Amino acid sequence: MNEYYSLGLTDADRVNHAFGGGIPEGSVVLVEGVDGAGKSVMSQRMAYGIASEDAYVSYISTELNAGEFITQMHSLSYDVVDHLLGGQLLFLSADVDTHRNGSQRELLARLTEPSLLWQGDVVVVDAFSAFLRNDPRYDAITGVGDEDHAMESVLTFLEGMTRKGKSVILTVDPDAVTERGLMPIRSVADVFLQIETETVGQDIRRTARVRRFTNMQRPVDDSIGFNVQQGRGITIVNRTVA
Asked: b or e along 101-135 (b: 16 or more beta carbons within 10 Å of the residue's beta carbon)?
């Protein structure tokens, strides 16, 4: 019988309900969207909700430092300070400058090394595409057709993590990675969400297209509409098509 990591906050929003009661243990979750689509906020909501349900969450960001992360989460009413101080949530900031001090660093190899990051029950990598784009070895083969082969060691590592019951949430900007580079991670993702946006007047309508959801606990719609609001975070919205 499959176990699940609840997305929590059931008294505050309908996110956990919209996603079928949580994500399966031992799964790879891919959240894909262009810059500004809302993939980071979605991963932050997942991380905060899961940590609120007493699972241990590790979150690594290529965009925010610790102070910026706390401020961002507070603006969404996701007050993570207690989780951070209590050890329920571990935040790490990733430096993806591969030329610091004149020496190149292989980011993907460092990401998949045994470390404190991978001790969490759920690990969030935001954004995984930044590790790909800035890794010198990966960058060298981009466009020559070997991106999928470069991903083999990463996928093997992720498989080892999921076998231990850990779930891994990866955010990816499809504009930052070639289609060939996206194919391997898309193919192994147990949960694959593509976030789309549409501007209607002064509103930005966001929709999570559920391309795959393996071993869902309860039925999940193919499309999940949501808003991102200061002071409220993510709210699920029902949209009818005329």
From this structure: eeeebebbeebbeeeebbebbbbbbbbbbbbbbbb
Asked, for residue 101, whether it belongs to a domain, the answer is: no
Burial class (CB in 10 A: 0-12, 13-18, 19+), 155: middle
User: Residue 60: beta bridge partners?
Assistant: 92, 125
Degrees to nearest 5, angle at CA 233 with 232 and 239 = 95
Q: Angle at the Cα of 176 (from 32 to 143), degrees rounded to 5?
A: 125
Residue ranges making up the domain that contains 43:
4-94+112-237
Question: Does any domain span residue 107?
Answer: no
Q: Would residue 106 count as lying in a domain?
A: no
Locus of tokens 């997305």: 7
Tens-place pLDDT, residues 168-196: 999 999 999 888 889 999 999 999 999 99
Structural domain total, the chain: 1
- Helix (H) or strand (E) holding 209, with range, is strand 203-213
Tell whether omega for the bond before 51 is within 30 degrees of 0, i.e. cis: no
- Can you give the pTM of this predicted structure? 0.93
Report d(CA 173, CA 37) in Å as an integer.
9
- Per-residue pLDDT for 98 more than 80? no
Identify the CATH number of the domain in which residue 79 sits: 3.40.50.300
Examine residue 19 and state whether it is found in any structural domain, yes or no: yes
Tokens of 66: 């610790």
